[in-house]
Amino acid sequence: MQQIAPPLMRHLVDASPQPVALVDAQDPDHPVVYVNASFLALTGYAEEELLGRNLRMLQGQQREQEGRHRLREALGRGEPYATLLRNYRKDGSAFWNEFNVMPMRDAQGQVSHYAAFYREPRPDQEAPASVSPAQPQAILRDDRLTGLYSWLYFEELLKRDWAKAQRERHTLTVLSIDIDALELYNTTFGRAAGDSTIRRVGHCIAGCLRRASDATSRIEGGGFVAFASGLSVEQALAMGSLVGERVRDLRIHHPRCTVLRFITVSVGVATAIPEKTAGHQSLVEHANRKLQAAKQSGRNTVS
Q: Does 249 have pLDDT greater than 90?
């Protein structure tokens, strides 16, 4: 079989429509050493803004995603892994992608680099859920951990209500919610305790949105999203405040949290009468930006 010359291989990867990145496995911080043009187009960053940095930058403040924990464990074993992650472009807009990582070994069999491949989630794939390459996919209505709606099912409901709000000219509200310092809680009490807390918080959030038209979904890790229709801006903010208050009332002890000594959440709220020129994702992205603002202003707050 004829061998392909390295320059031609480099040109092939450069021209690939699939976003690709290569990181240094020997450096403890795993800095980026290569990205192709598709990766730059996906993220909105220039090459010089990515080289030398860890790809965790793409998760912004959303670094407590369950998929990231599983990914670290797999890489520690030198194994390939695939997961769905919520990332943020340079302009702050959020996007989901299926993130596949493959260890690259040198002549001595040591892992020298990790190749990262990105693509849009497949229509038949439940999102967001961590998956191994050999794990069969399933279409589920419910999130396996909490029993809340899965993201894909939730998104279909949101699309339906977005179209209805457009026709009837009433408001639609999206709340983006995240458990504060969940990774530190998991470090203190273990993953099983963290999962139990995620379930309790998820059920608490769903209990705050009780109308038949309301919906709540777990996104990833301790992240949730919910929507409600027909709320004024004041009512939407009151809803966000109620969620924060009810979670604090659970009194789940978190001794190492710098906000309170109990589990808290940050909440981003976005309310609008949908315009025909915009899609439902614009409201989700706006709520995510407000969530980032709430995190940056000290957590345990509503923005």
A: yes
Report the b/e string of 135-147 with b at 16+ CB within 10 A: eeeeeeeebeebe
For 102, list phi and psi in degrees, rounded to 5. Answer: -125, 125
Domain extent listing, the chain? 6-119, 151-296
Taking alpha carbons only, the member of 165, 167, 141 closest to residue 155 is 141
Q: Does domain 6-119 have CATH number 3.30.450.20?
A: yes
DSSP string, 243-300: HHHHHHHT--B-TT-SS-SB--EEEEEEEE---TTS-HHHHHHHHHHHHHHHHHTTSS
Q: Which amino acid is at 274?
A: P
Residues 191-246 pLDDT 10s: 899 999 999 999 999 999 988 789 999 988 899 999 999 999 999 999 999 999 99
Helix (H) or strand (E) holding 228: strand 223-229
- Predicted confidence at residue 65, as pLDDT, reads 64
Taking the domain 151-296, which CATH number applies? 3.30.70.270
**Would you say how long the chain is, in residues?**
303
Q: What are phi and psi of 168, to 5 degrees?
A: -95, -5
SS3 of residue 27 by DSSP: coil
Is residue 207 within a helix (H) or strand (E), and if so which, with residue range? helix 191-208
What b/e sequence results for 256-286 when a residue is b if at least 16 CB atoms lie within 10 Å of its CB, and e otherwise?
ebeeeebbbbbbbbbbbebeeeeebebbbbb
Contact 173, 158 (CB under 8 A): no
Instruction: For residues 52 and 291, give the distance between their C-alpha atoms in angstroms, rounded to a whole number.
Output: 28
Angle subtended by helix axes 191-208 and 233-249, to nearest 10: 140
